[in-house]
Amino acid sequence: MSLSSVSQVISEHVDFAALAPTFRAAKPFNHIVIDNFFELQVASGLAKEFPAFESEIWAEYNNPIEIKKLCNRWDKFPRLTYSIFDYLNSPAFVEKMSILAGEDLFPDPGLNGGGWHTHKSGGKLNAHLDYSIHPKLGLERRLNIIVYLQPEWKPEYGGSLGLWKASEDGKSPAELDAQIVCEFNRAVIFDTSQNSWHGLPEPIRSPEGINRNSIAAYYLCQPRPGVSDRGKALFAPYGNQANDPTILELIRLRSQVNAAASVYGDKGSFMNGLTGR
């Protein structure tokens, strides 16, 4: 399937100018949920192109604060997926995202942290703040778009995207304010620059072979006065993790540009390495 075979990419009902006031009024930070985002033919085609969880193309994150896989390699995207990421980075679509932000945005064609994302049963992602300054472009990360692409997903599987109010000092999540079920062809767009704590810290409970699949792209702006210089995601401990010095050290390392890659991978080897220090 190619984009030339469909009349339009995004559903006709999606009007970014009309959605902007709702986006800017949302709590705990600017966000909006758009159901039936892509034309159904497009969404179904993207779902069919999604690779198997066992594929060798994935980069894996497997540690006590994040269990997931992702791929942002353009050379691995099939025809429709490639075309959609090209569209999401196009001037026409970036202009739509700029309407929500209220200022000019820029795409990230390198898909740093974006692309295909997948979690199987047991997958999770502690509440976190995304990186603030792009490591290669030096621009400020401003908006995220996530579109869920698992047609068989049910709410009882968990995996809902949580949005938290920030603590008074902004250094940790406080009250869970919203949970967004990852329904098929549902888009979530949110501002990452407003102490935007988000994640899914409870392990997913989906049946074998039904994975929480999504695509993600990010949009940037010129750095604003007072912007954080955070170059990697900052995670929060969940539940009893708050009292575990090993987890707190993992979080510290994960937030450092030069150390983060050392703790992405195998959960067992990471834990053994830290406890052996």
Please explain how this structure is put together.
- The protein has 277 residues and is of the alpha+beta class.
- It has a single domain (17-226), classed as q2cbj1_9rhob like domain (Jelly Rolls).
- Helix content is 22%, strand content 26%.
- Helix 1 (16-25) packs parallel to helix 4 (91-101).
- Mean pLDDT is 93; it is low at 271-277.
Layout of helices and strands:
Elements: H1 16-25, E1 31-34, H2 40-49, E2 59-63, E3 66-71, H3 79-88, H4 91-101, E4 106-107, E5 115-119, E6 124-129, E7 140-148, E8 161-166, E9 173-180, E10 187-191, E11 197-200, E12 212-221, E13 234-235, H5 245-254, H6 267-275
Antiparallel strand pairs: 1-10, 2-3, 3-5, 3-6, 4-12, 5-12, 6-11, 6-13, 7-10, 7-12, 8-9, 8-11
CATH topology: Jelly Rolls
CATH superfamily: q2cbj1_9rhob like domain
Unreliable segments (pLDDT under 50, ≥5 consecutive)?
271-277
Largest sheet, strands/sense/barrel: 13 strands, antiparallel
The rounded Rg comes to 18 Å
Would you list the SSEs in sequence order as H and E? HEHEEHHEEEEEEEEEEHH
Task: Give the overall silhouette.
Answer: globular
N- to C-terminal distance = 53 Å
Oligomeric assembly: single chain
Strand tally is 13
Helix residue percentage: 10-25%
What's the short story on this structure?
With 277 residues, the protein is α+β, with helices and mostly antiparallel strands.
